[in-house]
Every structure is written in C-alpha cells, then in structure tokens.
Design a protein that fits this description.
- The structure is a single chain.
- The protein has 271 residues and is of the alpha+beta class.
- Among the domains are: 2-16 and 51-134, no CATH class; 189-269, no CATH class.
- The chain is built from eleven helices and five strands.
- Strand 4 (55-67) and strand 5 form a beta hairpin.
- Helix 3 (96-106) packs antiparallel against helix 4 and helix 9 (230-247) packs antiparallel against helix 11 (257-269).
- The protein is elongated and about 110 Å long.
C-alpha cells in the first residue's frame, strides 16, 4: 500500500489571493445630547493579489493484493488540491471527510492514512512554501499581520489605562493619532479620577484615625476583622503600603504614634 502524488494543471487561476492593503475606516456616532465621536477602524482593500500558478496535486492511495493467485490492484482517490491550498490549509481542513471514508473502506485507521499521505506530500509542501515566501503576496501578508499584532497590543495597553473602547477614538490601526483633543480629555478625566480616589482614601483614613483616637473604633475593627474578602484584603494591603510610606516617622517627623496606630490597624484587619 502506497500513496501517489500526481502533479496536474488547473484550467483557471485561483481568484482568492490575499488582499493587498489594510484601509482605515471612519464611523461617526454618538448618544443624544452628546457630540458625535469618530471611531477609527479598519478593513481590507477589494484588490487582491493574482495567483498565477496553476499546479494542482491529485492524491491517491494504491493497494496491490493477490486473489486466486492473481495480482490485483485497487485505487482510492483522496482529493485534488491546488498549489495554494497546500499553502493555506492542511489535509485535516480540506480532505478529512474523504480520508475518513477511505479509511473505513480499507479497514485502516485515519492516522495511518494521514501518515502515509504526508510522507509523500511533505516534500511537495516544503518546496511550495519556499517558493511562495519569495512572492509579493507573502511579504504583504506578513506586513499586515505585524501591523494588526502591534495594533492589538497598543489597544490593549491603552484601554487598560483609559478604559475599554477608547483607543479607536484616538488612534487608527497604524498607530497614527487621529484625535489629539479627545486624548487630552481622557488624560484629564483619568487625572481627576485619580485625585478623587486619593482624596477619598485620605478622608476615609482620617475618619478611621479619629474614631480610634476617640475610643469609638476599637470594637468595630475587632468585630469586622474576619469579614473581609480576599479582594478587600488585597485593597487593605495596598492602603497599608501607601499609608506606611506617608506616616513613617522618618517622613512625617512625629513620635511614631501614627505608624504604631497603622500597625495596630494591620493586625486588626487580619493582614
């Protein structure tokens, strides 16, 4: 039993080469009462690369056997795949049903057939891929993949900083800043949020300190010590870390009472 790869010629070229360019698109929308915003997305050009190679490869399995003293032969055609099919797909994508059917007729495992075919097909694929990598289509496709990869990374980093769905209001797929005004608005908004969070933390800490100083907070902390979730404990760790830097005796130049109180709070929080 053996595999035969027969080279043939198609009558017509493949019409589905890779698209030549990535194009920036603009979509403007907004909610009632708001200034419309422009989102910079992308699409591919309609123009495609030509695929002039007409080579195709007929894959078949041949089996010779004896019956009543005579040599007989049987052949199963798996599929005919084009030059470009071998670049873009595997047999698992384009010939799985045929291989499954033939394997059942032959009473063989599917893996056995795949191994038998690829033993002959792999040298053909390697040669085709080496040729294709010298084409303009391959280089353009790789450039487009790099552009989109950098775009996704930049978008993820930006949205982590300023919130989801904001990157494309500022930048296009090539990383070009399209709306500097909106970017400045995001920066101002983020700074305001950070300042608000900082003031809220400081006010909360002051209230806690005053409660403890007045003798009204001790029983509360002890009672609530075991009620903190893991996420709340992480937040308390962060509060302790920031506060310990601020209230360290070397920094605030006091007698150490603030730091002692902070340490006692840490114990009561169960950290």
């Amino acid at each position: 039993m053996f595999c035969v790869i027969q080279k043939m010629q198609k009558k017509k070229p493949d019409a589905y080469g890779a698209r030549k360019e990535i194009i920036v698109t603009e979509t403007k929308f907004g909610f009632a009462g708001e200034e419309p915003k422009t989102s910079y997305d992308y699409t591919y050009s309609n123009e495609r690369f030509e695929r002039p190679v007409l080579d195709a490869y007929k894959i078949s399995i041949h089996h010779s056997y004896r019956e009543n003293g005579k040599v007989k032969k049987k052949q199963w055609v798996i599929r005919t795949v084009s030059y470009y099919d071998l670049i873009e797909y595997s047999l698992y994508d384009c010939a799985d049903s045929s291989i499954r059917k033939v394997a059942k007729e032959m009473d063989k495992g599917e893996d056995f057939l795949y191994d038998l075919i690829y033993e002959k097909l792999n040298p053909v694929i390697e040669k085709i891929e080496a040729e294709f990598q010298q084409t303009e289509e391959y280089r353009a496709k790789k450039e487009q993949e790099a552009i989109l990869r950098e775009h996704r990374e930049a978008e993820a980093a930006f949205e982590k900083e300023y919130g989801q769905c904001e990157y494309r209001y500022c930048y296009d797929v090539f990383g070009t800043l399209r709306n500097p005004t909106y970017l400045e608005e995001l920066k101002v908004k983020k700074k305001a949020q950070e300042e608000y969070a900082k003031r809220s933390y400081e006010e909360s800490f002051k209230r806690t300190y005053n409660q403890y100083s007045n003798g009204s907070g001790s029983s509360y902390y002890i009672a609530s010590q075991s009620n903190y979730t893991e996420d709340e404990k992480k937040l308390l760790h962060e509060i302790y870390r920031v506060a310990s830097k601020k209230f360290h005796p070397d920094v605030c130049s006091d007698d150490g009472s603030k730091m002692k109180f902070l340490t006692k709070l840490k114990e009561q929080w169960g950290l």
